[in-house]
Design goal:
Number of helices: 0
Strand order of the largest sheet: 5-1-2-7-6-10
Number of domains: 1
Largest sheet: 6 strands, antiparallel
Strand content: 25-35%
Oligomer: single chain
Radius of gyration: 14 Å
Shape: globular
Length: 100
Amino acid sequence: MIKNGTRLQSQVCDTQVIVVKAAESLDDLRCGGQPMVAVGSSTSGDVAPDPDFAGGTAMGKRYVDDGGAEVLVTKAGTGSLSVGVIALVIKEAKPLPASD
């Protein structure tokens, strides 16, 4: 199982992430439709991203799934993050309390 602090990279683009909150769902974490690998792992480089998962990632944004998993993008890329075929969504910022 993937643990908090694990650094992963895409096989199809420049995207890199750090796991902030681990969950079992991250065992199938993908970018561009392809499984993510540990940073520093060799990638084939000739794998093309799935057009359905080519929406890109934004640097510094946290992406979450319904299972409580959360990853932080440390390097943006052209592939979209997903768990299996279910796309991750950008975590919304918590609104600050009003200062009267």
